[in-house]
Design goal:
The chain contains three helices and no strands. By secondary structure, the chain is mainly alpha-helical. It is flat, with a radius of gyration of 14 Å. The model has no long low-confidence stretch (mean pLDDT 81). The longest helix is centred in the first third of the chain and has 19 residues. The chain has a domain of 42 residues.
Length: 64
C-alpha cells in the first residue's frame, strides 16, 4: 500500500509541474485521470498492478 501511495504522489507532483510549466493542459490531465479510472475498473488492472509491483521490486533491489 505504501508503494501505491508513493507512486500516486509522485505522479501528482509530476502532473502539477507539467501544468505549471504549461507543458500539460488541464484537459489532457483530466483525460489521463479518466483513463486511469477506466483502467482500474477493467480486466487489465491486476496485470498493471503486477507490473508496477515487479518494477518497484526490481528498482528497490538495485544498489548504486
Amino acid at each position: 500500500m505504501a508503494v501505491s501511495i508513493s507512486v500516486v504522489l509522485l505522479l501528482i507532483v509530476i502532473t502539477l509541474i507539467l501544468l505549471r510549466a504549461k507543458s500539460l493542459k488541464v484537459s489532457h490531465a483530466v483525460l489521463c485521470v479518466l483513463l486511469g479510472f477506466c483502467l482500474a475498473s477493467s480486466s487489465l488492472a491486476p496485470t498493471i498492478h503486477s507490473g508496477l509491483v515487479a518494477t518497484t521490486d526490481a528498482v528497490s533491489d538495485l544498489r548504486p
